[in-house]
């Protein structure tokens, strides 16, 4: 909440894109399997995306309880469309007017990540780590030059900091290096989309001052010598 409050103190409105709580998506996938809900069906997508919906509702209630002007805006309400596979769709766009109306109504707009709707209005998923590309798409719709993804580590490292004590955080990283090093920390499709729209991605952690910036700048770490980290958890995303 402190990050959101910090933006509001600067009179900057916030769009917070949230992921499901840790382990919830896996639980929902297991439930779908147990109930024999076909992968790739609309009921499957609806069920698996419900974790993010719950997170958005709970964050909004928490913010309102602490007297912050927040409201949920679902992908359907924002006209966030995507096409392709039901479980790994490619974003098409977000209705700019719907997003602006949401920001007019509340200074903090909480958006469930990971899902969108197809041309028929049915739920589609944006692939593993899809909340990342949700956040980048929202930044692009608002014409922002950068998006901040809040993770459980304070940036992108040259190797897994949980396994290597000598791991170094990279302050500035080019898109190609970020894709190589990102592992499960950042969705590759989100990096590709950000690059195509010339949007910088900031990787930060709640309560920590350090961060990495992914953009066109040349990285100090070359892609040839980079070591790929693994097993990161995407907690949530925040764009302002």
Automatic annotation (TrEMBL):
It catalyses: L-aspartate + ATP = 4-phospho-L-aspartate + ADP. Residues 3-203 form the Aspartate/glutamate/uridylate kinase domain. GO terms for molecular function: aspartate kinase activity; ATP binding. The keyword Ribonucleoprotein does not apply. Its EC number is 2.7.2.4. GO terms for biological process: homoserine biosynthetic process; lysine biosynthetic process via diaminopimelate. Keywords: ATP-binding, Kinase, Nucleotide-binding, Transferase. Pfam families: AA_kinase. GO terms for cellular component: cytosol. Belongs to the aspartokinase family. This is aspartate kinase. It comes from Arenicella chitinivorans.
